């Protein structure tokens, strides 16, 4: 899920994780204000504006076996793909209960990414880029390197709609493509082994990646492709990193895998500059490692420059896929993890001291009694205010990086009434996300030509 970019979800075209599971996929929307869950019976959308309460804002049973479901910010536009028709993408206006359009492709759809400007469909060996205003097919990238997991990332910042996808099936090359101007920006030699996860930060100035080995996470500048940070997830074992996500302010990066640990890294430069930081043990060790790297072998010095996790979460179980995101809920930073067994965990994150994150609430996303209220749906493991270190967090001055907002959106992620997203180059007009009188971003209705267009390309 995007964060983001959310990274994909626990499911896929071949079915969800585990036999008999009702869970097909999970994705957070672009600003992590809602969670979309695909199941064997359809899909659900949940609002993420509160910690203790998880509101189901929409539930659809029209399409079974959903393995892709993506919502466009806080609008009513939802993209759905089902294993019953894995080559067809359906786009719905869920508040009106109507289908806006559908599109068919030559092979199975592996991923769909969208922002206010573009909608990207990823197949195993091709990528389709559509204008989200009218679903016009703008570009087809054919014969891309084999990408069986459909790995790709689209920046949520529509003013520079960068798309990232694997540039090789054997090593970790990243192609960064400008989906607005329809040209390749750069190729980043990120890892020695094939890519496993990609995500942009909210402003599309940074791109994080992990390889199939899962031991090192790297962050690059966009569009230059310069390596900025390296974070070592672990050295003892290779893991499958399933999800990467930046915090709204871009200062933190979370990573989840098939292990029981979720890591949160802090993007900060340890330099020789003065101030309190220079006198800390971390800064001192950083200086020693930096000096030592000038005469140590490259492999050793590279390892010594890695930063360890700023904060961690230990899940109850391991071995199952999940998707994670960092969000600001009720004015405090939270880590959210949706797991393949149909649960959502919300953790408090201390942005000052890090450490082990405290579980604030656990929600069941579905169950036998999932329509009988929150009492049967969720388990309280401790209110958010129970964490004493959060007194300091809540008292931070307004200038502190405790929240980040996107143009046209209020702090809670809902669209401001009447607020208009500025016009951009390829749109016929501004995209208004006023849910009272919503103008769907896609105003092209299905007339039977959509599937032919995709196939002809």
Write the layout of secondary structure elements.
Elements: E1 23-28, E2 34-39, E3 43-47, E4 55-60, E5 66-71, E6 77-82, E7 85-93, E8 98-104, E9 111-114, E10 118-122, E11 126-131, E12 137-142, E13 153-154, E14 162-166, E15 172-178, E16 183-191, E17 195-200, E18 206-211, E19 216-221, E20 227-232, E21 241-246, E22 252-257, E23 261-266, H1 281-292, H2 298-304, E24 311-314, E25 322-329, E26 332-339, E27 343-348, E28 355-356, E29 358-364, H3 374-377, E30 378-380, H4 390-394, H5 450-456
Parallel strand pairs: 24-28
Antiparallel strand pairs: 1-2, 2-3, 3-4, 5-6, 6-7, 7-8, 9-10, 10-11, 11-12, 13-14, 14-15, 15-16, 17-18, 18-19, 19-20, 21-22, 22-23, 23-24, 25-26, 26-27, 27-29, 29-30
Q: How does this structure look, described?
A:
The chain is mainly beta. The chain contains 5 helices and 30 strands. The chain has helices spanning 281-292, 298-304, 374-377, 390-394, 450-456, and strands at 23-28, 34-39, 43-47, 55-60, 66-71, 77-82, 85-93, 98-104, 111-114, 118-122, 126-131, 137-142, 153-154, 162-166, 172-178, 183-191, 195-200, 206-211, 216-221, 227-232, 241-246, 252-257, 261-266, 311-314, 322-329, 332-339, 343-348, 355-356, 358-364, 378-380. The strands form 7 sheets. It has a 5-stranded mixed sheet with strand order 21-22-23-24-28, with no helix packed on it. A 5-stranded antiparallel sheet has the order 25-26-27-29-30. A hairpin with a 4-residue loop joins strand 18 and strand 19. The longest helix has 12 residues, at 281-292. It is globular. The chain starts with 22 loop residues before the first strand and ends with a helix. Mean pLDDT is 76; it is low at 1-11, 15-21, 271-306, 368-439 and 444-453.
């Amino acid at each position: 899920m995007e964060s983001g970019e959310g990274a994909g979800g626990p499911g896929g075209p071949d079915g969800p994780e585990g036999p008999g599971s009702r869970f097909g996929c999970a994705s957070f929307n672009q600003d992590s204000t809602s969670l979309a869950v695909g199941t064997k019976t359809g899909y659900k959308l949940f609002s993420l504006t509160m910690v203790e309460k998880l509101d189901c804002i929409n539930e659809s049973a029209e399409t079974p076996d959903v393995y892709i479901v993506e919502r466009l910010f806080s609008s009513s536009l939802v993209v759905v793909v089902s294993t019953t028709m894995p080559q067809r993408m359906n786009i719905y206006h869920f508040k009106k209960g109507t289908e806006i359009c559908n599109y068919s492709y030559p092979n199975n759809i592996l991923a769909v990414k969208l922002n206010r400007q573009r909608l990207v469909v990823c197949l195993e060996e091709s990528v389709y880029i559509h204008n989200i205003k009218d679903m016009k097919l703008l570009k087809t990238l054919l014969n891309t390197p084999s990408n069986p997991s459909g790995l790709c990332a689209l920046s949520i910042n529509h003013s520079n709609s960068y798309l990232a996808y694997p540039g090789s099936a054997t090593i970790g090359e990243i192609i960064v493509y400008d989906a607005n101007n329809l040209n390749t920006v750069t190729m980043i030699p990120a890892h020695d082994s094939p890519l496993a996860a990609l995500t942009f930060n909210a402003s599309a100035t940074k791109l994080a990646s992990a390889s199939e080995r899962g031991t090192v996470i790297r962050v690059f500048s966009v569009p230059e492709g310069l390596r900025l940070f390296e974070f070592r997830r672990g050295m003892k074992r290779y893991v499958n990193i399933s999800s990467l996500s930046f915090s709204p302010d871009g200062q933190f990066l979370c990573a989840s895998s098939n292990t029981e640990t979720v890591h949160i890294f802090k993007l900060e430069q340890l330099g020789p500059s003065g101030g309190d930081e220079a006198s800390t043990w971390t800064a001192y060790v950083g200086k020693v490692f930096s000096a030592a790297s000038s005469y140590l072998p490259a492999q050793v010095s590279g390892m010594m420059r890695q930063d360890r996790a700023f904060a961690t979460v230990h899940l109850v179980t391991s071995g199952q896929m999940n998707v994670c995101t960092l969000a600001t809920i009720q004015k405090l930073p939270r880590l959210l993890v949706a797991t393949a067994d149909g649960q959502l965990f919300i953790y408090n994150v201390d942005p000052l001291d890090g450490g082990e994150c405290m579980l604030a609430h656990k929600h069941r996303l579905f169950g036998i009694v999932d329509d009988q209220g929150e009492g049967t749906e969720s388990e309280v493991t401790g209110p958010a205010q129970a964490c004493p270190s959060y007194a300091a967090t809540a008292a931070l001055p307004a200038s502190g990086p405790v929240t980040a907002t996107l143009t046209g959106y209020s702090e809670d992620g809902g669209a401001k009434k009447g607020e208009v997203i500025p016009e951009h180059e390829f749109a016929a007009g501004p995209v208004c996300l006023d849910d009272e009188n919503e103008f769907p971003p896609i105003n092209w209705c299905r007339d039977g030509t959509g599937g032919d267009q995709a196939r002809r390309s």
